[in-house]
Structure formats: C-alpha cells, structure tokens
Specification:
- Chain B: InterPro entries: AAA+_ATPase (IPR003593), ABC_transporter-like_ATP-bd (IPR003439), ABC_transporter-like_CS (IPR017871), ABC_transpr_TagH-like (IPR015860), Bact_Polysacc_Export_ATP-bd (IPR050683), P-loop_NTPase (IPR027417).
- Chain B: Belongs to the ABC transporter superfamily.
- Chain B: One of its GO terms (cellular component) is membrane.
- The complex is a heterodimer of chains A (295) and B (327).
- Chain A has 295 residues and is mainly alpha-helical.
- Chain A is 69% helix and 1% strand.
- Chain B has a domain of 183 residues: Rossmann fold.
- Chain B is built from ten helices and ten strands.
- The two termini of chain B are 20 Å apart.
- Classes of the chains: A mainly alpha (295), B alpha/beta (327).
- Chains A and B meet through strand 1, helix 3 and helix 6 of A and strand 1, helix 2, strand 5, strand 6 and helix 4 of B.
- Strand 1 of chain A pairs antiparallel with strand 5 of chain B.
C-alpha cells in the first residue's frame, strides 16, 4: 500500500465524491446522447416499415383506448372532448411508464456492458430516458394533430391552437427531468433486488387508473363511501401526486377543457416534483455506484 | 465461471505461427498497478448452490445477511429465492510495472477472467484493493457492445465509453476499421458479424484509445494469423509507450509469444508468478499431467473442455497455495 501511495496510484472501485461524479457525468454528455439516439433508432429496426413505427405505434395505442373507453364504455361524459383527453393521457403516461420499466432494466439488463467498460453508471438510466424522449417527440406531433382533428368531429368540443401551446415543451422538459429521477431510483432498486422487476407492471397499472389517464377521477371520488375529511385527503393526494400533475400540465396547455384551466400552482408543483425526484433519485443511484455489475 | 468462459474452449495445442517467438524486452519502469490481497465474490441470484457444490465447484450458498424481504421469499422453499455466491478470486497480490506485459494462464474456471475484470475496476472486490495509474481498458471476446447496432455506431459508443470525444473517435474511425479488417461490414449490425469479426472490432476499439493499461481477454484467440500479427504489433506499441498489457489466454504459446511475465491462477489463487519461460514450463508440465487417464475429478465452473480439466487428484501437485476444490 505504501508502494501505491509512493507512486501516486489511484484506488479502483471506490465511489467517487458526489461533485466529482457529477463533473465526470457531464463530461460524458455526448456518450449519453449517442447511446440514446442509437438505441431509439435500433428499437424500430428489423421491421419493413422501420422508423415509421415510432409514429404508428402510439397511434394504434391511442386508438385502442379511445375505442374502448371513449366510445364503447363512454366513461368521459364530464369531459368536453374525450378523444383529446384520452390521447393526451395515454401518450404522456406511456412516457412515464416506459421510463420506469426502462430505468429498471438499464442496469440489471446490461451486465455485459458493465463488466467490460468503465464509465459513470448514471449514463445508462439517463440515456434510457433520453432515448424514450427521442421516441416521444414524433409521437407528440401525432398527439397534437389528433387533438386538433378530434375537435372537428360532431359532439366533441372544438380544439384551437392557442398561445398556451407554446408551453408544451416546458411541460415535456419537466416531465423528462422527473422521469430521469424515476429511472435512477428504479435502476438502483432492481439492480439490488431483481424480484421487484415483476411488480412494476402491477404498480404502474394502479398508477394509471389512479392518475386520471383515461377518465377524470373527480366524479368517482364524490361517490366514494368515506367521510368528508377523508375525501379531502384522498382527493388532494390524487390531484397533486406527480403523475396527475404532469397530465394536468399537458392537458391545460393543449385543450380548452373548463375543468382544466391554466394553473400557476400546478406549474410550481410540476417543477418541484421534477427537481425533487431528480435530486433524490440521483443521490440514491450514486450511493450504489461501486456495486453495479457485481451480481 | 463468468459468461466469458463459455468462449474459452480453445485448446492448448501449440499454434505454429507462435512457435519460436518470444516477447522482446522493454525497459521496466515504476509500478503502475498494485493488487493487494484481492478477493472477488459475486452473487448469482435465483440459483441454488447445493447442486453445484455437490459437484465440487467453488460455489456456496450465500452467507450474506439477507434483508427481511429476501428471507421471507427464500424461507425454506426449494424453488423460490436462493442466492449463490461464487468466490472466484481468493486472495491474490502482485505488483506490475510500466512496460511489462503480463499473461494470465489457468484452466477453465480458474478465475482468470474475473481477476482481469477486478483489476480493470469492473468487478467490485469483496475485500482487498486494486490501485492503478490511469484508466485501464478491457474489452474481451464477450464484451458485447450493442449487437443490434452497426459496427459504425458501436465504434462511436465504445470510443465515447472509453472517454474519447466524438471528434477523436471520428479521427480514429478509419484506423479502427482498417485494423479490425472488416471492411464494409462496419455498416451492418454487429449481430451479423462472425465471432472473429466481432472480436477483432472490439479489440480495435479498445486499443484505439491508446490506454495506459490494456487488458485483453482471449480476444486474440478468435483472430486469424494476419490479425494476430497486427495485434501483436499493437501490443508492442502500447508497451513502447510505457504502457502495460495484460493478456488472459488458454493458449500458452500465445502468452509465450507476447508476454514477459506470467501469472498462473488456479482456483482463484496465484500458483506461480515469474518470467514467462519458467512459469510456462511448469504450466505445460501440469497440463501434461492432466491429460487422460484419470481426469474424472470435478472442476470449478463445470464447463466443457475436459482436455485441460483440473482433476481433483492431480491438482494437489500445484502446491500448497492451489488447494483443490474437493479437499
């Protein structure tokens, strides 16, 4: 050991200090970006239609939900334009859901890469979410077009392009930061306890129905058989939990629903959730840095 | 023991192009890598050790303090839970100086690849420590980058992962392609490559960053003669620049041709450490003793390749340090 010190050798396999880690990570930005865009591109390779699936996939997905919930079940009587409501919900929620599942696999599924190359491991969850963002962008264009077209159908509220549409990128950026935080947390949890990977699907389904992705929850809460005090608490949780906040932000930008006006409180909450999740997730992930790749 | 071992089924026959070759001497500098009492243990979740242990493998059921959840899951049942521990490297110490090229030899599953990964900083040690100067670079045969992406994209990703800037990677792109000798295949997905082509490309990428410590895990075994000559030249280049080269191989002739020093690892322990010719002689002798008859002993890893199997009875010959599994 004296020998190592004498010649100024660096010890391997120790977690770098947080600031140094962040600096190292920022130096790898082009690595994160390249990894993200290449995986986003590779996802749709091996099909005859190739990159067209980046657009077709979300359209089909939205069509299924619109058909079942909007038309057959008709659960959205309180909403002016149920197609717009469902399409925005499904597209945005898919981004969150795939960040969680992708983040969970970003470390545990890449043991070979971890055991052969040396780089700050935070690159992997970050690039996973970035690649999902890259696939979301064409889907967002599709989403806007569907929202506009749905207003032309009889019986649906007309949709117009307003100045608020310019805030859509801001909402997406906040969501991206939030998702990266989620991916950090999931990556660490699943890397240490692989069993939890099996539970994610069920949890996400609960979150989906608990966040008003397909139909607004307000009406159901009223009919619940609980005391008034409990209703306030449950209602507050349902309304201000992060997924619901981000859905609210995107809907308030794109639609003119009376029940979803622009809200400064919601924007502040969205920003707060994004920062909090990112910071906590990053630290949680960093604390496991020297362990990844061992199992 | 690790996945890489699956590819390590190469024979120990002498390869003609390596005969009569020895590694040239280069001046030896200051220490650049110090390994102190290194132990590596990795966990395999979801497999029971009992079966493996019965075969005499270096595997045992994990003695970690399990969390409440894990205890709950694995409580007394045969098919749930179960964490095995593989004690792949058990107390290895050595020092390497600038300009040395070190070969690591040993039979299948002796812990060579795990040792290499641990000193590259890719497998966290259970105890002990590794100190290095500079950033070690390791790409073995099995180090899959992104099989679904083209070689071109893999070169970019690999280069960036090794810490190059995009511009540096572009500058070296032609050189990497030429060195790997894969021509226009570079634009096809890597999963379409033959194993030799993929190994060549990985070696080309890993050495493109001109690392201070270059680690090669069987990468040369899949290449053809022309590639071997080129990689040998590349290894010399690294050493001339006061770098250090590690080479894991079964083929003792490859090691003899390229290394000045050899570490012989058996069952996670260092059996011999010395100049190539001395260690190579003893190793060859040991291997000859392992040949039939009497090779029915169990071995760590339990892979194929029975020709050089570490038989229980004969392993004792190795010496006090190399204790056979079954004893």
């Amino acid at each position: 050991m004296a020998l190592a010190k004498q010649y100024g050798l660096r010890r391997l396999n120790v977690r770098p200090p947080l600031l140094e880690y962040i600096r190292d990570l920022m130096g790898r930005w082009s690595f994160i970006r390249t990894l993200a865009t290449s995986t986003a591109y590779a996802r749709n390779q091996g099909n005859y239609l190739g990159q067209l699936w980046a657009v077709l996939n979300p359209i089909l997905n939205a069509a299924v939900y619109v058909l079942i919930f909007g038309i057959l079940l008709g659960v959205n009587r309180h909403v002016g334009n149920s197609i717009a409501f469902i399409v925005i919900g499904v597209f945005i929620f898919r981004f969150i859901e795939s960040s969680v599942t992708g983040g969970a696999k970003s470390i545990s599924g890449k043991t070979q890469l971890l055991r052969s190359l040396h780089f700050p491991r935070a690159v992997l969850p970050m690039s996973t979410v970035l690649s999902l963002l890259a696939t979301l962008l064409p889907a967002l264009v599709v989403m806007c077009v569907i929202v506009l077209l749905s207003g032309l159908l009889p019986g649906y509220q007309t949709m117009t392009v307003t100045w608020w549409w310019l805030l859509l990128p801001a909402a997406v950026v906040l969501l991206w930061i939030f998702n990266t935080g989620l991916a950090f947390i999931m990556a660490r949890i699943v890397a240490t306890t692989p069993d939890l990977d099996n539970i994610i699907g069920f949890v996400m389904r609960v979150v989906m129905y608990g966040s008003g992705v397909i139909f607004p929850l307000a009406g159901y809460l009223e009919r619940m058989n609980i005391s008034e005090g409990a209703k306030v608490v449950v209602g507050g949780i349902l309304e201000y939990q992060p997924v619901a906040v981000f859905l609210y932000l995107v809907r308030s930008c794109l639609t003119q629903e009376e029940s979803i006006p622009q809200s400064g409180l919601m924007w502040a909450l969205g920003a707060a959730w994004a920062v909090v999740f990112f910071a906590i997730g990053f630290v949680i992930f960093w604390r496991g840095e020297e362990r990844y790749g061992r199992d | 023991m690790t996945e890489a071992d699956a590819h390590m089924d190469f024979d120990l026959e002498l390869e003609p192009e390596d005969l009569e070759e020895t590694a040239p001497e280069t001046p030896i500098g200051d220490p650049c890598l110090v390994v102190d009492d290194l132990h590596v243990v990795y966990r395999v979740v979801g497999s029971r050790a009992r079966k493996e242990a019965a075969k005499g493998a270096e595997v045992r059921e994990a003695q970690i303090k399990p969390s409440f959840l894990k205890r709950l899951v694995s409580a007394g049942r045969q098919h749930t839970g179960g964490v095995s521990e593989v004690h792949a490297v058990r107390g290895i110490s050595f020092t390497v100086r600038h300009g040395e090229s070190v070969g690591i030899v040993g039979v299948n599953g002796s812990g060579k690849s795990t040792l290499l990964r641990a000193i590259a900083g890719l497998m966290p040690p259970a105890s002990g420590s590794v100190h290095v100067s500079g950033e070690p670079s390791l790409l073995g045969v099995n180090a899959a980058l992104m099989p679904q992406l083209s070689g071109e994209q893999n070169i970019m990703i690999g280069g960036l992962a090794l810490g190059l800037t995009p511009k540096q990677v572009e500058e070296r792109f032609d050189e990497v392609v030429e060195f790997a000798g894969i021509g226009d295949f570079v634009y096809l997905p890597m999963k379409t490559y033959s194993s030799g082509m993929a190994a060549r490309l990985r070696f080309a990428i890993s050495s493109a960053a001109s690392p201070e410590i270059l680690m090669i895990d069987e990468a040369l075994a899949t290449g053809d003669a022309a590639f071997k000559a080129r990689s040998k030249a590349r290894i010399e280049e690294v050493r001339q620049n006061a770098g250090t080269v590690f080479l894991v191989s079964h083929s003792i002739s490859t090691v003899e041709a390229m290394c000045t020093r050899v570490l012989w690892v058996h069952q996670g322990k260092l059996v011999m450490d010395g100049p190539t010719h001395e260690v190579a002689e003893s190793y060859k002798e040991y291997i000859r003793d392992q040949r039939p008859p009497g090779r029915r002993g169990p071995r760590a890893g339990g892979r194929a390749g029975a020709r050089n199997g570490g038989g229980k009875g004969n392993a004792r010959k190795v010496g006090a340090q190399g204790q056979p599994a079954g004893s």
